[in-house]
Design brief:
432 residues, alpha/beta, Jelly Rolls, TIM Barrel, 6-stranded antiparallel sheet, 9 helices
Length: 432
Amino acid sequence: MADSSRRTFLEMALGVAGVSGCVESDSGPSPGTTDAPATGSRPADSCGDGALDTDDPLAVEYDARRRFGCRGDLLDGFEDLSVWETYAGRLDATGPERAYAGTQSAELTAAAGDGRAWVYREFDSPLDLSDRDLSLAVRLDAPESESVVVQVLAPDRENQFVLSKGVWSAGWLRVDLGPSAVKGDPDLSEVREIRIQLPVGEGAEGRLLVDALRTTPKSDRGAVMLTFDDNHRTQYDTAFPVMERYGVPGTVGVIHRAVDYATTMSLAEMRELQSAGWDMASHPQLERSFRQLSPEESRSAFRESKRWLVDEGFEDGARFLVWPFGKYDADAVETAARYHYLGFAGGGCPVGTGVTDPLLVSRVTGDDPDRTTAMIDLAERYNLLTVVRLHTIGVGDDKYVSTAGFERIVEPLADADVDAVTPSDLWDGPTG
């Protein structure tokens, strides 16, 4: 991976590009473009330009969730549930008041003895998803947090992609899906079945609404982003020299109240990282997560953190958010979209580069070098975006990654046929 290769990724990144090879649903017409309206429980302008009418100097120009929420093509709008069958739990149609788009969504319910809600759809003629990535609108009503699992059988259960992403109960979200596991040798040009699961375990209940299963064009090249939470000084002292040696940039989620402490980076060190191509992103961490803050407290936290970054000369990184504790609720996500274009949360999987919910881009933990390199391999093999979450480097305990373990991540990343990117690299490309 040469430094010049970082820019090759930009043409395929987050901008609205023309889409060919439309995949139409047999249960309703495809919205087709990014400015197709969504109806139901979401505002009529939930897809579209998303321009924000505000004089707030800290606000971004547009709500990226609205601008990109309908990107790509509709594969299934869940208007006809007769094409879906149930393995476990119950499947029901909602009314339009609980739909993400169209006249209804699908409600998956797991009773206490079911263990999971599990539905599937078989295709008489194989789907060709070899050049497409998947996304799905979800609303998790119960439990508070769980993984949404989508299995793509290509062509059978011995050869499949398992797409799993953890989400919080936070109203309607779009889940951008990438493989957390690959079984056998799947052929995505021969997709015969798609399964959707909400695993809750025996004795627990669950309810998940799903809608608007969409596809987006797959990139010609994968990308990997290394993100570091909490501006710990080992990120400068230990990680930075390793990454400089291999030409890999990074992104720091900055807790602005914790700059220039004994265990954190100084302002001068952060500026040195910025000069080396790193981003300093907002990480407005308080003692409580955003799920515990009022809307007013959330807005204040976003604004205070972003203002500090802008005032200290980190305007580029201030456009982006690293979610504290990986937690959010509906109010926090809506507010974050007024101040940031991209947000990085949990989730545990790579994603397609054409994200449809830019405020909730999935990250994978970097604490296990073997698992991390496996996620980098998936980005390379299937042209995905893998965002890695790191904290301290080599502090002498087993909580986070060791120095040797970190080098075991960076060295193969530098050799991989992927681009090492920052949020600015994604956002500032020709189509951003």
